[in-house]
Amino acid sequence: MLPAYLPNPVAALFGGGPPVDGGKNFTDGRRVFGDGKTYRGLFFGISAGIGVGVLQMWLSGAYGLENLPVHTWMSVTLLATGALLGDLVKSFFKRRVGKERGTKWPVADMYDLVAGALLLTLVLDPTWIFANITLTVLLFILVLTPVLHRTVNIIGYHLGVKEVPW
Ligand code: CTP
Ligand code: MG
After folding, report:
1. pLDDT at 90
2. Average pLDDT value for residue range 49-69
3. Given ligand 1 and candidates 31, 38, 81, which is best to mutate, with the most ligand atoms within 8 Å of its CB?
């Protein structure tokens, strides 16, 4: 799941600049995505996710870690892209319910990346999902995600990368 987990923290570190929605509002008068969703965040986040996935592919070949999920260029690209698409879709709905950028939206803020990554991969590479994401793995992901999410955000907050510890 590293290709799905890495894009968010990397986007927080290297994001910024022009927002994806170009500063535009939706029909309800609120921003489409908000200033927290930028092209730079998408670019560096997705690149980092693919990068770590390719590193995993190489390590698994070099060290014979065959019991780990077998990644392909396809699977790592879909997981990384899906993670930030999930984050983007989450922000779209977060704006629609009237929550400002950076405010807390429990559950959605944590599972957006998991839902995005697994759904995009399920649609475009179902074979990979069914071969690797067993029920046990899925349960593990659902338990691990909030723990990782909270830990990384508290670290990011103290490093001054994130304005809020969630
Ligand atoms: N970020 C970015 N581009 C993205 C995603 C994230 O530049 N596609 C950066 C932004 O600087 C953002 C930070 O990472 O502020 C933290 O991301 P996140 O918590 O997802 O955004 P929020 O600012 O909390 O916005 P939202 O309320 O829409 O979730
Ligand atoms: Mg946030």
Report:
1. 98
2. 87
3. 38
- Distances from the Cα of 162 to the Cα of 9, 41, 72, 105, 155, angstroms: 9, 13, 32, 16, 9
Which of 65, 43, 44, 46 is closest to 3 using CA atoms?
46
| Ligand 1 pocket residue status of 82, Cβ below 6 Å | no
Closest CA to 68 of 15, 116, 3, 145: 3
Q: Which residue has the tokens 């899906």?
A: 82
Distance, CA of 119 to CA of 121 (rounded, Å): 5
pTM of the predicted model, to two decimals? Answer: 0.95
One-letter amino acid for residue 44 of the chain: F
pLDDT of 65 above 80: no
HEC string of 93-118 equals HHHHCCCCCCCCCCCHHHHHHHHHHH
Atom of ligand 1 nearest to the CA of 33: 28
Nearest of 132, 166, 124 to residue 146 by alpha carbon: 166
